[in-house]
Amino acid sequence: MKRNTALKALSIEHHHGLVLANKAKKAVMQELGNDDLQIIWNELQEHADEVLVSHFEIEESYIAAAFTALGDPHLKQLADRLIAEHAALRQLLSPDTPRSAANLKQLGELLQRHIRFEERELFEAAQTVLDEDTLQAIATACDARRS
User: Fold this and answer.
1) Where is the Hemerythrin-like domain (predicted)?
2) d(CA 60, CA 38)
3) What is the mean pLDDT of each run of 10 residues along the chain (147 residues)?
4) What are the residue ranges of helices labelled H in 30-100?
5) Helix (H) or strand (E) holding 119
6) How far is Cα 29 from Cα 31, in angstroms, rounded to an integer?
7) Residue among 2, 1, 130 at smallest CA distance from 58
8) pTM of the predicted protein model
């Protein structure tokens, strides 16, 4: 299904996230040195600070909240997965998590799986069940971050 324009900004951010996830996984597979791994960790942290914090907030505040309010068990399950994976990503990106190769691999794999879930399942459901007001609110929230 073609992506609803209200969700396009989030989908564009997903593309950059996939690039970083693949970069992280590739760096670990190539057994790069610690200095190179730290550069990738820094890129991921910068992406989290500049994009993911507000990206997660929009998805949780609008999509997960609406899915939960609709009362459909399948939509609630999608919302719960979204929130759980966001929490896991936040934990992996927290200053308390060691910046090891193993954690970088885990972060890259989770980020890739999570983005694919959002694009293939969450957004497909969102553009089918959310009303135009909610979709417009998502687009407005995305636009507000850029100004």
Assistant:
1) 10-125
2) 29
3) 91 96 91 86 95 97 98 98 99 95 97 98 98 98 86
4) 34-47, 53-58, 65-70, 73-93
5) none
6) 5
7) 130
8) 0.93
